[in-house]
Task: inverse folding
């Protein structure tokens, strides 16, 4: 437990050193100020979509950048001979970046929305979406050697991950959309701001949690291969 807590502390320091928190402050101020220009009644149906669309940067892209940075600094080579387990390393990234997303989104709400939110669906949807984004970022980035090589194809990945946003805005409700891994978390986020049927909450929690578990298993396998190659 002490080893894991130290890993979380080091991740927080690394994120601070690389300016992640300054970027978050900028996004909070800019987004919150922009949202204040719109009537609250117009925002209530869109807040889930807005927050969901904002998650990619400080999950998918932040974790990808961190992994490539740590490989270039030979941190991953040291990890290969340390007692730290792959699942502990990955869990630290998931906790710190999901926590960062939760803080950022909550501050945006506080500044730009200021209305009551159904807190449990909101937190569940935000955390599940953050975890899936982060895990997929880890799985994808191990296939690339540099951030420049990664950036162009990353747009395709994030576009695919955001498909439920477009289907929601277009009011497309047929069953194929419910197979998408991000559909459950997005519905939970929406439930934080508008009333949805109870079955959507159960579906969102179960399906989002299922994808998190499957992706974590895949992520561990991909990461072990990445560690061997980095060593």
Result:
């Amino acid at each position: 437990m002490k080893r894991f807590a130290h890993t979380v502390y080091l991740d927080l320091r690394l994120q601070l050193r690389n300016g992640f928190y300054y970027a978050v402050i900028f996004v909070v101020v800019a987004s919150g100020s922009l949202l204040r220009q719109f009537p609250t009644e117009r925002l209530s149906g869109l807040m889930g979509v807005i927050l969901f669309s904002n998650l990619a940067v400080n999950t998918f892209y932040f974790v990808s950048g961190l992994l490539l940075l740590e490989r270039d600094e030979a941190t991953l080579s040291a990890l290969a001979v340390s007692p730290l387990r792959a699942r502990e390393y990955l869990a630290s990234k998931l906790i710190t970046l999901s926590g960062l997303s939760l803080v950022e989104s909550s501050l945006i709400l506080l500044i730009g929305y200021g209305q009551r939110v159904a807190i449990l669906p909101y937190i569940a949807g935000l955390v599940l979406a953050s975890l899936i984004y982060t895990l997929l970022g880890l799985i994808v980035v191990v296939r690339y050697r540099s951030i420049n090589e990664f950036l162009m194809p990353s747009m395709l990945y994030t576009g695919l991950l955001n498909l439920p946003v477009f289907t929601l805005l277009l009011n497309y409700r047929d069953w194929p959309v419910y197979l998408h891994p991000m559909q459950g978390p997005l519905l939970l986020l929406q439930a934080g701001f508008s009333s949805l049927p109870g079955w959507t909450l159960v579906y969102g929690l179960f399906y989002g949690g299922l994808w998190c578990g499957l992706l974590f298993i895949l992520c561990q396998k991909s990461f072990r291969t990445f560690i061997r190659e980095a060593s």
Remarks:
- The mean pLDDT is 89.
